[in-house]
């Protein structure tokens, strides 16, 4: 597909490309491409890549067949296949056949931070260790209906409750997806680096609010902090310190957006020695001060 949106094929295959991930009407932290548009960052004809966004891509295969390699494991995709891609997943995929049809959505980890219900914690564990599932036709039809409603409200830029309804539908979609995958067997990874990376993120999800040093995670994983960061840099492009900081920033944003706690109280809760140190850390990661962030999200 060229810049005008037309498909260009070589040997009966096509690569679907669109300009940028967000359009002017996109909700902050949430995006559904137009039907038939595949995220260009996930098309990797040569080698592998990890998408560099702080969130999750979900792919629903509606027709045709294709192959995608995730963390070195090939997956044959056909109607009913669901793929959930986290930042630590290594992806390799070639050109897509003309008959391949796929619906996609992306959401930041922060998008649901102020939603009153929490995603079940087993979602990240299940899809982190096995990102691809085949859903039965009834379950897939329910997911398609929910996805269609998300698309409708995502396009209603002037609707006063657009974001709230989208979050409720996303929560419904994720809960239904977990239900559909509950009885599906998990794949087993053999790569030590990938297994260590998955185990690190599972620990981080559970402990980031109280444990903020690489030594803690390395100790729980029976490796040195230096080795853990070396593996994480190789598998994700970042060190353990980076990811711990990312999760702290995620919590800081949530507290600033959804509570009345003062900056000093939040700094203490997050383990910073004082509010000044916290403010410098926050600005370095977000480009604004905690006060500016809170003012812009009220």
TrEMBL record:
<keyword id="KW-0804">Transcription</keyword>
<keyword id="KW-0805">Transcription regulation</keyword>
<dbReference type="GO" id="GO:0003700">
    <property type="term" value="F:DNA-binding transcription factor activity"/>
</dbReference>
<dbReference type="InterPro" id="IPR018060">
    <property type="entry name" value="HTH_AraC"/>
</dbReference>
<protein>
    <submittedName>
        <fullName>L-rhamnose operon regulatory protein rhaS</fullName>
    </submittedName>
</protein>
<keyword id="KW-0238">DNA-binding</keyword>
<dbReference type="Pfam" id="PF12833">
    <property type="entry name" value="HTH_18"/>
</dbReference>
<dbReference type="GO" id="GO:0043565">
    <property type="term" value="F:sequence-specific DNA binding"/>
</dbReference>
<dbReference type="InterPro" id="IPR037923">
    <property type="entry name" value="HTH-like"/>
</dbReference>
<feature type="domain" description="HTH araC/xylS-type">
    <location>
        <begin position="198"/>
        <end position="296"/>
    </location>
</feature>
<dbReference type="InterPro" id="IPR018062">
    <property type="entry name" value="HTH_AraC-typ_CS"/>
</dbReference>
<dbReference type="InterPro" id="IPR020449">
    <property type="entry name" value="Tscrpt_reg_AraC-type_HTH"/>
</dbReference>
<dbReference type="InterPro" id="IPR009057">
    <property type="entry name" value="Homeodomain-like_sf"/>
</dbReference>
